[in-house]
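User: Predict the structure for this protein chain, please.
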Amino acid sequence: MKARMLIGLLLLGGVSLVAVLVPLLGALASARTQALVLQRGAALDEIVAVATTAGDGDPVTLQRYLDRFFEVHGESVLVVDGEGGPVAAVGEVPDPERADRMLLSAQRNLPQYDLPVVLPWSPSAQPIAAPVRRGSEVAQGGALLVVDAADARADVTRSWSIAVGAALVLLGALVVFSLRFADWVLRPVRILDTAAAEGAEGTGVLPAVPLGPPEIQRLSRSVARMTQAREEALQRQRGLVADVSHQLRNPLTAMRYRVDDLLADDPGSEAVTALDGDLERLSATLDRLLAIAEVEQRASPEGVAVVGEHVTSAPALAALFRQRRDLDRIRILAATRGEVVVGCRRSDLEDIAFILVENVGKYGGPSPTATIALWAEDGRALLRVADDGPGLPDEDLGRVGTRFWRAEPHRSLPGTGLGHAVLGAIVHANGGTVTVSSGRPSGLVVTVALAGSSWS
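Assistant: Here is the predicted structure, written as structure tokens:
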């Protein structure tokens, strides 16, 4: 955005500067040319006056005048009679053909005082001509003066240099002003953008930025109020989930005791057995909701978790889960052996791996295999759990992690639909990412990226 603003400002300023500079340069050259025409035209008039007074019978006087004129001004002069024959001359005429045409026009009573506009690259010799009249209005000859425009050209070059230099100074000032102006306008926008990016990765209140134009300041205050309201709503929502879960736990526990008593009295009762299963699912759902609330609270600004480090490996995780009876139906393999420094608490990593292995047991088929891999790459610790089950359709991969969502084939299986939501909350609280993809030739592959490095 800064580049686009600078381009616009500099383009507008440059066009305006050129629109002023070009006519100014033309005016300077025209003014100097006009002064040269008046000055050298007066000199030519004096030559014509001497030629008229001396006449054809006294060319010596005219020649002496021209010699003296040449010594003073260094400009060539040619005077001709009515037939075009030379009467007196001094110096050399650079372009004889053009001189003949101009003298012919002067002999026809047409003065040739016009000079082309003197520019820094113009030729230094520019002829002008005037008719010579003796006692009548009819021309009796002509006089040609080769004007030395070197001084005028130098004056034009000097004035142009001053004008262009002033324009460059103005352009530099415009660049400095544009940079300062762009920084003044965009600095609060950059601060808001950075704060918004940080807020998008977690939660928090964007600060009001007392910088820049009044409109940007009003925008920042509005955004700060909006994010404050959002943060308060999130805190109320998390508090509600935690409070409701805690408050429901005691009634659920009491109900479990009563159901256990009923089952002891009548073990074959289908209604009591169904009620017991419903209580199990409700209890598991509350446990998951409490886990999500606890992890999200750790990720909020009011309760940022202290991210630790620990060293572990895929075989260590696999050995840990092989010891659990609730996972004894799953074949657990370790695909890597190296130890890795993982940038999170050990309990968080074990919870992440347990949720993934547990899902393999639920949805991986009758005799599933879970393959655990853990390695370091580009400053990240990567945990991958792959299974050989049926997997998910490609259109369902993007919905994994949505709370209470379950794929169509899994609706009848035990579960709450909150496992991946808890996993995502834990990973997010530790600044990581989760990627879900299809395995080859079948199954599901879940890759968790956390801060980490190799251990040697």
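The chain has three domains: 2-156, 214-303, 310-454.
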